[in-house]
């Protein structure tokens, strides 16, 4: 205490240490709680995204199996074979022959028409008579002769294609998912019902993928009886009464959500849960809370350690400042030197109320005004550069700023797209000017977003026409592919626009690939433009194309033919060009989409 009473420097240092340590501890605590909450929200958001993806994959898989079952039931050869089998007397040689023919037709339709990968997802395909629901054919012969009169898939399957929610089988109580559909005779009369059990292990595999869950994450499916939908975990002895948790129970009540709770094993987890009503299953995605919040723990400890280190270092600085407190003029001089070096964040300490203190105050006011002036200049410069980048591509703008007077470049291979909105001018004739501009701006803003997302260069708009290019001002090998994808997206934009506004607009798009010259023209209201025969040809592809279609030249077709579907228009007379071989772009090939 004696030292603190006698030394101002010691008191200043001690008070600073006390306050700083309290502030650092408080800051570390607040940082930890905020980081933990943020980490929790991020984990929940991640799980929701993961769950959305898994739900999408599940729905797509189920839709594929429904389509397979329906297509099998609609095969003329299978319907005829089933009709012939039902017409034969059971046990006769003719019946056995008809049974073999039906089996052969089913095998060929399943493994040849639809592919073995799809067929492997159906564990059993069977057919039931219209009266009584008797199984007269099955890929599991032991089931033939059974009656399924009261089964829901038989009752509903006589009316329409039906997906029965996961249910326990009567003999093993194992979870089962069944698709059924009406089975008609060649003359259209109802013969019975064709049904198939879907392989649930595929759903388990989709859900069990660790994507987005980390090493400690877990995703699983639970049926309405609180049982795992997994062959190795179904009826697990550890959970004789099923699995239960807040997430599972909430999902089984038909609700979806996420939060922090204890899982079925009593471990704290951060989880996302949702109900899949069409399947009668709960989809649960969880990760241990300790693993999810580990970054927050490390961050809190790091903040505390760095803060205490900073307090120690600042304590030394405070002590040195206390030594110099009697030398205000030196402090002002030091501040002046720092500011002259370019650090305008410095201010001179006002240590007294005399002339030196007044000098320090006036000096600080002068520096504050200077800093504000420089900040305003920097803000105006940033605004000017932003406006310039809205007019010109970034590489071209940089060249202009570095003093190039004439900018003109040749590009050996680019792809150009022209798009024109059909019927927009007649439609706009009866609308106010503001509404016309608003509608056109809405469409072109979405086009701009598509171009920016795929790295295309917007050249210009003329009325209701829109022009972009790929491969300029920076060459790229996939110029044709990105333009093709953008064109397909533009068709979707117009479709969505019509749905929102009740309009009947359509778009006509033309695409061509080839060499161009690009540059900046003008000194006032200058623009970045492109020229060349490839540009004119792309314009002709649009102007002489088909409403609602994408017409491309043979040059572009050579880039896209392996990955996209086309309609060959053959030789078309193009104004100013003569006959040209053109194609209509329809979409990406299915195998290219899967890749």
From TrEMBL:
SMART domains: CYCc, HAMP. SUPFAM superfamilies: HAMP domain-like, Nucleotide cyclase. The chain crosses the membrane at residues 12-35, 299-322. It is found in: Cell membrane. Residues 360-387 form a coiled coil. It holds the Pfam family dCache_1. Its main location: membrane. Keywords: Cell membrane, Coiled coil, Lyase, Membrane, Nucleotide-binding, Transmembrane, Transmembrane helix. It is a multi-pass membrane protein. Residues 323-375 form the HAMP domain. InterPro entries: A/G_cyclase, A/G_cyclase_CS, Cyclic_nucleotide_synthase, dCache_1, HAMP_dom, Nucleotide_cyclase. Residues 415-542 form the Guanylate cyclase domain. PANTHER family: GUANYLATE CYCLASE, GUANYLYL CYCLASE. Belongs to the adenylyl cyclase class-4/guanylyl cyclase family. This is HAMP domain-containing protein. It comes from Photobacterium alginatilyticum. The lineage of its organism: Bacteria, Pseudomonadati, Pseudomonadota, Gammaproteobacteria, Vibrionales.
């Amino acid at each position: 205490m004696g030292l603190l009473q006698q030394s101002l420097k010691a008191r200043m240092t001690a008070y600073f240490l006390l306050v700083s340590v309290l502030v650092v501890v408080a800051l570390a605590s607040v940082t930890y709680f905020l980081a933990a909450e943020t980490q929790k929200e991020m984990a929940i958001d991640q799980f929701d995204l993961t769950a959305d993806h898994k739900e999408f994959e599940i729905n797509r898989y189920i839709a594929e199996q429904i389509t397979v079952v329906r297509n099998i039931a609609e095969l003329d050869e299978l319907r005829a074979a089933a009709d012939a089998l039902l017409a034969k007397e059971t046990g006769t040689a003719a019946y056995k022959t008809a049974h073999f023919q039906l089996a052969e037709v089913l095998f060929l339709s399943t493994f040849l028409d639809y592919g073995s990968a799809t067929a492997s997802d159906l564990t059993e395909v069977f057919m039931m008579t219209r009266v009584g629901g008797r199984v007269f054919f099955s890929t599991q012969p032991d089931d033939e002769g059974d009656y399924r009169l009261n089964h829901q898939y038989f009752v509903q399957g006589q009316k329409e294609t039906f997906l029965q929610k996961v249910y326990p089988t009567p003999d093993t109580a194992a979870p089962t998912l069944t698709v059924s559909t009406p089975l008609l005779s060649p003359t259209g009369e109802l013969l019975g019902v064709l049904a198939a059990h879907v392989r649930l292990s595929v759903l388990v595999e989709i859900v069990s993928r660790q994507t987005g869950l980390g090493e400690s994450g877990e995703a699983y499916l639970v049926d309405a009886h609180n049982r795992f939908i997994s062959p190795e975990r179904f009826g697990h002895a550890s959970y004789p009464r099923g699995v239960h948790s807040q997430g599972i129970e909430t999902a089984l009540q038909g609700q979806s959500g996420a939060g922090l709770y204890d899982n079925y094993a009593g471990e704290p987890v951060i989880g996302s849960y949702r109900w899949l009503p069409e399947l009668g299953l709960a989809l649960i995605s969880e990760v241990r809370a300790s693993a999810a919040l580990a970054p927050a723990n490390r961050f809190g400890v790091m903040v505390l350690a760095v803060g205490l280190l900073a307090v120690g270092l600042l304590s030394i600085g405070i002590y040195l400042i206390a030594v110099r407190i009697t030398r205000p003029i030196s402090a002002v001089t030091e501040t002046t030197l720092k500011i002259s070096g370019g650090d305008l964040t410095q201010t001179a300490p006002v240590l007294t109320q005399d002339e030196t203190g007044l000098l320090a105050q006036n000096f600080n006011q002068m520096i504050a005004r200077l800093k504000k002036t420089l900040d305003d200049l920097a803000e105006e410069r940033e605004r000017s550069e932003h406006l310039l980048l809205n007019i010109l591509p970034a590489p071209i703008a940089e060249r202009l700023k570095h003093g190039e007077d004439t900018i003109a470049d040749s590009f050996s291979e680019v792809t150009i797209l022209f798009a024109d909105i059909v019927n927009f001018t007649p439609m706009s004739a009866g609308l106010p000017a503001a509404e016309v501009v608003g509608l056109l701006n809405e469409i072109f803003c979405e086009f701009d977003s598509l171009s920016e997302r795929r790295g295309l260069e917007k050249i210009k708009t003329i009325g209701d026409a829109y022009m972009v290019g790929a491969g300029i001002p920076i060459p790229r090998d996939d110029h044709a592919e990105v333009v093709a994808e953008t064109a397909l997206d533009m068709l979707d934009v117009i479709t969505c626009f019509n749905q929102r506004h009740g309009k009947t607009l359509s778009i006509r798009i033309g695409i061509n690939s080839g060499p161009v010259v690009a540059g900046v023209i003008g000194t006032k209201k200058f623009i970045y433009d492109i020229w060349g025969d490839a540009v004119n040809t792309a314009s002709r592809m649009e102007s002489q194309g088909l409403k609602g279609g994408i017409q491309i030249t043979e040059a572009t077709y050579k880039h896209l033919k392996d990955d996209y579907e086309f309609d060959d228009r053959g030789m078309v007379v193009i104004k100013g060009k003569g006959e040209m071989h053109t194609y209509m772009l329809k979409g990406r090939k299915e195998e290219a989409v899967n890749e």
